[in-house]
Amino acid sequence: MAESLWPWLRLPFYLSTAFVSLGGGALYYFQNEIIYPRNLPPGARKEVPQPGQFGIEDAEVLSIPTPDGETLSGFLVRPPNKSQARPITILSFHGNAGNVGHRLPIAKVLAHDLQCTTLMLEYRGYGLSTGNPSEKGLRIDAQTGLDYIRNRDDLKSSNVVIYGQSLGGAVAIDLVTQNKGKGDIKGLILENTFLSITKMIPKAIPIAKYLTPLCHEYWRSEDVISEITDIPILFLSGLQDEIVPPSHMKELFKLCRSPTVVWKELPNGDHNNSVAEPGYFSHIEDFVQRHILKR
């Protein structure tokens, strides 16, 4: 299944290279546009691929209100065979460009091959969601997605796994730390995420490295990941990542205090195509089987 979807799986992630194309004085005045390029590719705010385009039969189109008055779009994708479905709901957070529709092939593999229900939540200001993105706003969105699972009768008893790619990894780490000790989050999956926005700037926008004190979007994963001490964590690291240095993932791994931390390398994976590398979904399958279902 994953092999047939590789062209689609690769497509959205090249967009995060938009982060490196702007810099200098724009960092302060337009940093939200740089960090959250929600209009890329052109049309991404209006043209959202739908489940049927990828042969996904059991999916809901969602519209979820936030406590501060925004409305988040999203998809809930279920395994096609209910008798084989695992009692797992994956809450997925994508990278900094495109929309949830571009990530539907990932949800299809998670649902069809791994038999996991997947909630793909759209950030505010992305796709068909209302509002404008910011660190504060995305934190509210993430909590809204988790609360949606907690309050929905057919999902609230499932094992929740938080899954984040790139920027979504920072969102995921923050969400888990804000909900530690509550018992329903059973695992965390991180792919090619960073230590913090300020640590990313010298790599992504070298000419702006002296302006990092002006940055007002932080996502300080390095400061909070050690607070996660009660759930297993899977790191999926593309060793050819040209956007987020692989050293960021390795340092986050070293900072972990969870009793179970799994490190998996994708030797040929760069920032854009790690999800399509051989073994990517097998690593997730093994993590779910060994560390979520057998806990």
UniProtKB/TrEMBL annotation:
GO terms for molecular function: palmitoyl-(protein) hydrolase activity. InterPro entries: AB_hydrolase_fold, Hydrolase_4. The keyword Transmembrane applies. GO terms for cellular component: membrane. Residues 89-218 form the Serine aminopeptidase S33 domain. The keyword Iron-sulfur does not apply. The chain crosses the membrane at residues 12-30. Keywords: Membrane, Transmembrane, Transmembrane helix. It holds the Pfam family Hydrolase_4. PANTHER family: ALPHA/BETA HYDROLASE DOMAIN-CONTAINING PROTEIN (PTHR12277), PROTEIN ABHD13 (PTHR12277:SF81). This is Serine aminopeptidase S33 domain-containing protein. It comes from Zymoseptoria tritici (strain ST99CH_3D7).
